[in-house]
From TrEMBL:
One of its GO terms (molecular function) is four-way junction DNA binding. Residues 1-35 are annotated as: Disordered. This is Helicase/UvrB N-terminal domain-containing protein. It comes from Emiliania huxleyi (Coccolithophore). One of its GO terms (biological process) is double-strand break repair via synthesis-dependent strand annealing. It comes from the Eukaryota. Residues 75-140 form the Helicase/UvrB N-terminal domain.
Amino acid sequence: AMVRGLDALFGRSAEPRPPPRAPSPHEAQAAVYTSAPADSAASAVSASTSTAPLPRIDAAEAQYWEYPEAGTGSEFRSYQHVMTREALAANTLVSLPTGFGKTFVAAAVMRNFLRWFPDGLVVFMAPTRPLVHQQRDACAKADLPADGEAALLTGDLPPSERRALWSTGHGSEGW
C-alpha cells in the first residue's frame, strides 16, 4: 500500500488552501467538494452533540494513511488518490461520471477509517442493491473487510435479523 504521513495530509497551517491546479484532460470531469480544512479533530469532536462513546483510536495506525496499490485490479488514477486524501482530511462529496472510480475512493477511505478506529463501524449506504454489491466488490479489492466482518442490510432481511446484524456491527453471513 502507498503510505503517506498525516502531516503531509493535514499540513501544519490553518491558512486557507491555495486554489487547486487546473485539472488535466483526464481529470477534467472529476470534482471534489470539501468542507473547511480540518484544522483540529479535537474541535470537531468537542462540537459534537452525540452522547455515544467515541471509538478507540489506534495511535500507531493513525500516524499514516494507506492507498491501495495498483495490484488491486485497478489502474492508478491520480485524481482518485487526491480525492481519497481530501476525504480523509475533511467532509467530502466526490462527483464523478460513471466508471471513474467513486466506489474505489469510498473503499480506500473506509479502509483507513477501519484501521484508525479498529472498534469503530463504517456504514456505506446506497440507493440500490446493485450499488451495494458493487461497493462490496470494491472493498474486496481494497483488502477489506475480512469475511464475517461485514453485512449487507437490505429490505430482503426480516427486521429482527437486520436489528441483530446492526447491533453486532457484522454478521455471520458476511458479504
